């Protein structure tokens, strides 16, 4: 039987998952991620992401969301495609 401490840990940390999902962020037509970020939740279509780049912020609009399976582990990785919003 699980102890109170074990149950508390699962409630706080999830079942072996990070509390903040890592999301790969891609620009249109790119095969390499622009960056990987830890988000409190998965960004949704139309939302904006601001990212510090070289001392100032770039603003990106989320235009596509998908999840890709990572080979050997079978784990799924969240991915979003963004467009720079001038």
Q: In short, what is this structure?
A:
The chain is mostly beta strands and 86 residues long.
Write the SSE topology.
Layout lengths: L3 H10 L8 E6 L7 E4 L9 E6 L2 E14 L6 E9 L2
Parallel strand pairs: 1-5
Antiparallel strand pairs: 1-2, 3-4, 4-5
Radius of gyration: 16 Å
The H-and-E topology, N to C, reads as HEEEEE
Could you tell me the strand content as a percent range?
A: over 45%
Tally the helices.
Answer: 1
Largest sheet data: 5 strands, mixed
Number of DSSP strand runs: 5
Q: What ranges have pLDDT less than 50 throughout 5 or more consecutive residues? A: none
Principal-axis shape: globular
Give the overall average pLDDT. Answer: 84
Overall structural class, as computed from helix and strand content, comes to mainly beta
Looking across the biggest beta sheet, what order are the strands in? 2-1-5-4-3
> Span between N and C termini?
56 Å
Helical fraction equals 10-25%
Description:
The chain is globular. The chain is mainly beta and about 90 residues long. It has a five-stranded mixed sheet, with no helix packed on it. The mean pLDDT is about 85. It has one helix and five strands; from the N terminus they run H-E-E-E-E-E.
């Amino acid at each position: 039987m699980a102890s109170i401490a074990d149950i508390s840990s699962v409630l706080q940390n999830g079942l072996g998952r990070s509390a903040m999902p890592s999301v790969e962020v891609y620009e249109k037509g790119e095969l390499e991620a622009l960056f990987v970020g830890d988000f409190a939740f998965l960004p949704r279509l139309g939302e904006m992401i601001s990212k510090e780049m070289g001392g100032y912020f770039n603003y990106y609009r989320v235009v596509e969301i998908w999840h890709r399976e990572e080979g050997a582990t079978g784990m799924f990785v969240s991915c979003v495609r963004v467009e720079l919003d001038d």
